[in-house]
Q: What sequence folds into this?
């Protein structure tokens, strides 16, 4: 009798938690979370004490986002629209890395301009979010991978 009562109580508790958690989960917008991730990166870069650490943070976060895009691409069957969006975003991120380090025809970002460059990365990412189309499901997968990898 006690076991049945105990199990029933656990089931009711689980259902109550599920009822409360579901609206919270439904409120998650992966596009907004990705923007928050980039904003957080910018804040970390600005808080870094040296130019070397700023550059290393930018490098780590940008490479992490590229890696997340690559993994999302390999884990899911993407629509042509999602594939185009991921390809375009990966290209923009790679060009940003090239500019950061002075590769592929770019001049390296001077040490004194890394904070401004971080702001530029944020603005470019937010603009890309308006012009590139990635479905909610793919954006959520990319977000999860970024959180896990970076």
A:
């Amino acid at each position: 009798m006690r076991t049945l009562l105990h199990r029933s109580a656990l089931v009711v508790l689980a259902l109550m938690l599920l009822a409360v958690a579901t609206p919270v989960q439904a409120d998650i917008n992966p596009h907004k979370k990705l923007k928050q991730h980039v904003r957080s990166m910018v804040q970390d870069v600005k808080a870094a004490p040296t130019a070397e650490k700023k550059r290393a943070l930018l490098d780590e976060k940008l490479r992490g986002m590229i890696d997340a895009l690559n993994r999302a691409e390999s884990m899911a069957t993407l629509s042509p629209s999602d594939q185009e969006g991921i390809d375009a975003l990966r290209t923009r991120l790679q060009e940003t890395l090239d500019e950061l380090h002075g590769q592929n025809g770019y001049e390296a970002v001077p040490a004194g301009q890394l904070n401004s460059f971080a702001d530029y990365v944020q603005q470019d990412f937010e603009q890309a979010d308006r012009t590139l189309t990635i479905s909610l499901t793919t954006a959520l997968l990319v977000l999860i991978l970024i959180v896990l990898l970076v």
The radius of gyration is 20 Å. Residues 29-149 form one domain.
